[in-house]
Amino acid sequence: MNDRTETLEFQAEARQLLQLMVHSIYSKKDVFLRELISNASDALDKLRLTALVDKDLVVDTDDLHIAIEVDRDARTLTVRDNGIGMSRDEVVSVIGTIAKSGTAELLRQLREAKDAGASQELIGQFGVGFYAAFMVADRVELVTRRAGESGGTRWESTGAGTYTIASVDDAPQGTAVTLHLKPADAEDNLHDYTAEWTIREIVKRYSDFIAHPIRMTVERPGEGDAEATTETVTLNSMKALWARPRGEVEPTEYHEFYKHISHDWTDPLETIHMRGEGTFEYEALLFIPSHAPIDLFSPQGRRGVQLYVKRVFIMDDCDALMPNYLRFIKGVVDAHDLSLNISREILQQDRQIQAVRRRLVKKVLATVKELKTGQPERYRTFWSEFGAAVKEGLIDDIDNRDTLLEILSVASTQDPAELTDLAGYVGRMKDGQTDIYYATGENRATIENSPHMEAFRAKGYEVLLLTDPVDEVWVEQVGSYDGKTLRSVAKGQVDLDTEEERKEAEAEREQQRTEYADLLGWMGGVLGDSVKEVRLSSRLTTSPACVVGDAHDITPTLEKMYRAMGHEVPKVKRILELNPTHPLVTGLRKAHEQGDADPSLAETAELLYGMALLAEGGDLGDPSRFARILADRLTRTL
């Protein structure tokens, strides 16, 4: 070592920032190794590029690698590379100080932040992951020599406030970072970073796909009286499938990779391999699973997309890259350059992220659309497993709503076994039909047996049968398709007659309105606490009554969903419709004409309303009262 040794002091702002990094920024201490390996990989890439550009630079690029060296007795861990290295001036500017332009302003914002979480959001991209080493080390040494130079540089610090920098004569090309490790502390999540399997696990998790080999010399105990031996092993696979052209990857390789990242035991339904080029480059390898995870509808369910930057693992479950309705998609997105905060753990919400997200979503939906048209069996598998989740996108993703409506499939009265899409329904609509009719309910049987369906069945109108809870919401949000209004069979007035049929029945209807006027007014008063109106129905053929909503009322199911989520919604009164040709209704009218003082008539009106609620699968307001009145009536018949 020559006499060019200096002891320098961190600037006050830089010391504060260093303390923040060591104690607040990183949620997991293991990431220190990810940061050091990432820096080493960058140095190797820079050497290869420099050697191509600078023909006068004589360097060997045949065996670019990263070495991890452990001394268990001295409790040191060294990460070494034979990359580009740094000059003394570069060490001073890159490693010797954290301070960059705007540091004083940054620290002012940090002091105003009320918690560490807010502090993290304020930190920009400083590229100083090297200092994560101080989370696990009492002292850090760095020895480096830039390719093409004869002398090297040693940097050393405890992170307390000063650092020393000196020139050395015998440094190898590249950079070696040696950590003098703190004692292991399980309570503080400080592992023993001299343990082989701890290092293996960290490298496998964060750096498995680094393009350069990560090597470590390990000791193997001898058998019997044989002496222990050592061998050099490569810790990372370097098999980043997403970085290879699709034509060079076998389907079995994709399937094995999917099982590795998803912990699934079955092959994926579909593989999506794409590359984004231009101002922002990235590769993506996404998978559509062949079956839904058990936590698909759990608020705590895991998301599927992992984020890498230049093959370095950044985070699991990256919800910034995939909308919630596609939460079942598994895979990897590897960005060449991405705005992360200082810890690389939180994505800054910028145009890059939004652009990647838009492209990924469009590609996934386009793939599903291709399955629907070209591989209907595979599409049916997809929709049966994930359709209920995908329909959430009709509410949230307005930009892709048209595509989502194209890939939508629902049950209908057209076929008891096969689903239909909206385009198919529109193609089968009757002459003069302007609305797409649908019904919602818990299951197909309940909907098909509902009184609301009687007129549609009698007239031969196809009705979509929607049984997922999300259906209650998206049909209201979407409103129409191909110029046709989505209309519930349980809302508003229904008149399915042709103009000729309407003219023929007008006289009869007018007579019914006259005959039932008193009964309707009386029942409206008796049931006033439960219904907003009692009127004659044009949708019933065999049932005595049904309950319907006004055209713009929310449904009872949706009302219950809002209440379950803690939202206060006013109680919505509905409309009781009577079938003027049903014997029970005509009998009630005649009994009322003879005298409405009989208290049993009011009970009959209550029973009629309760029966209408039960017929549609609804809930009675007072089940015990309904049961008592019904029991009394049955007793009288014996």
TrEMBL record:
Region (B): 345-560
Family statement drawn from the similarity comment of this UniProt entry: Belongs to the heat shock protein 90 family.
Segments for region (A): 1-344
Role according to the record: Molecular chaperone. Has ATPase activity.
Subcellular location: Cytoplasm
One family name in Pfam for this protein: HATPase_c_3
Gene name per UniProt: htpG
Residues forming coiled coils: none
Species classification: Bacteria, Bacillati, Actinomycetota, Actinomycetes, Micromonosporales
Stated name of the protein: Chaperone protein HtpG
Domain Histidine kinase/HSP90-like ATPase: 28-185
GO terms under cellular component: cytoplasm
Species annotation: Micromonospora endophytica
Stretches for region C: 561-638
Entry GO MF terms: ATP binding; ATP hydrolysis activity; ATP-dependent protein folding chaperone; unfolded protein binding
Keyword Ligase part of the UniProt annotation: no
Superkingdom of source: Bacteria
Binding site for ATP: 35, 39, 81, 86, 100-102, 125-130, 175, 344
Keyword Nuclease attributed: no
NCBIfam families the record matches: PRK05218.1
Complexes and interactors: Homodimer.
Keywords: ATP-binding, Chaperone, Cytoplasm, Nucleotide-binding, Stress response
SMART domains from the UniProt entry: HATPase_c
